[in-house]
Design a protein that fits this description.
Length: about 100
């Protein structure tokens, strides 16, 4: 009987580790997108300004609106991703 309890505990630990790895992977990808949206337009502003987007130079647009839109998308993607991971790994929301 005690072997069954230890077996379910080991299974729970493995599931928790898999959930944590998936959470870290999602967070890492979205942080890379955030860093790219934050820093790359500034570094490549001259090149981006040669492209016109909605009547504005793309570098200017990214600084004024584009990065904000990307940040909102990151928050939305994080929410959707975490909801999906919680369902997949059976994590209960305590809120």
């Amino acid at each position: 009987m005690s072997q069954n309890v230890n077996g379910s505990q080991g299974e729970s630990d493995a599931r928790s580790r898999a959930y944590w790895r998936a959470t870290l992977r999602l967070t890492t990808v979205l942080l890379l997108v955030w860093a790219s949206a934050s820093f790359l337009p500034g570094w490549f502003a001259d090149e981006l300004n040669s492209v016109v987007f909605f009547g504005w130079p793309l570098g200017f647009y990214m600084a004024g609106q584009g990065s904000l839109i990307i940040f909102i998308c990151i928050v939305w993607l994080y929410d959707r991703g975490m909801v999906r991971l919680e369902k997949r790994y059976g994590v209960k929301d305590e809120g």
